Amino acid sequence: MNALLVRWVWWPLLVAFVVVARVWTFLSSTSRRRARRLAGSDAARQAGRAAEARLRAIVGTYVGNTPLELRLLVVEDHYARGWADSGLFTLSRSAYRVSCEMRVTAYFSSPLPSAETVAHILDVGERALSGIPFTHDLAHRDSPGGLAHAGHILAWDQPTIPLPEHAEAAHDCRFRLLWEPPTASSVASIRRRHGAVFALTLPSVTYFRVPRGLGTRLTRT
Fold first, then answer.
1. Is residue 218 part of a domain?
2. pTM: predicted TM-score of the whole model, two decimal places
3. CA 83 to CA 29: how far, in whole Å?
4. Does the pLDDT of residue 179 top 80, yes or no?
5. Are strands 90-93 and 84-87 parallel, antiparallel or unpaired?
């Protein structure tokens, strides 16, 4: 009798919670259409251009101070919609209606052998305020064929392990994908024309967010 009573009392409540949770999840999640509208707003595009300029300037630091010669620049500009989710008697949602992020990967060649090229990069990194985070001391801690410090990741072809083709970062919605120049169709084509390939991946930049519950107030980063 008690089990039957519990079933009659709790079952409708459970069903009601599931229904309410699904409705809440739907209403609290940012639709794809609204997210793209927010990510494409004038304020978002202005912040995106500023973020791209900063990332390009970092790539320019490598080009201007090391033997690296830029062959391909890949700019990935994407946004993530605000999601809501429900579990067993729990409700959760993201703090932002939309969040915009940018990642830049640069592919280079060098007129010097790889070992000499890396040595030049480390020499520049030793200079104060060079903008290049790699130094000789830190390089000893990294594995052969790669350097990773301060969010900068530099890798290069090994005799038996060439760099892979560019892989897009996982994201919710892509806003823009730029290959510059467009004629550089692959990493392999750079290798065939110019020899060993170096790849620099810079830290992803979250440049624009719309907080939830603040109307049209925007957050730029």
1. no
2. 0.80
3. 5
4. yes
5. antiparallel
Q: Tell me: the pLDDT tens digits for 124-160? A: 999 999 999 999 988 877 667 789 999 999 999 998 8
* CA proximity to 208, closest of 52, 32, 16: 52
- How many domains does the chain fold into? 1
DSSP annotation string for 147-168: EEETTEEEEE--SS-PPPPP-P
Does residue 48 lie in a domain region?
yes
**Quick check: is 221 in a domain?**
no
- 3-state secondary structure (DSSP) of residue 27: helix
Residue 15's domain comprises: 3-211
- Residues facing 169 on adjacent strands: none
pLDDT above 80 for 85: no
Q: What is each CA distance from 42 to 48, 53, 153, in whole angstroms?
A: 10, 17, 32
In a domain, 136, yes or no: yes
pLDDT confidence of residue 172: 66
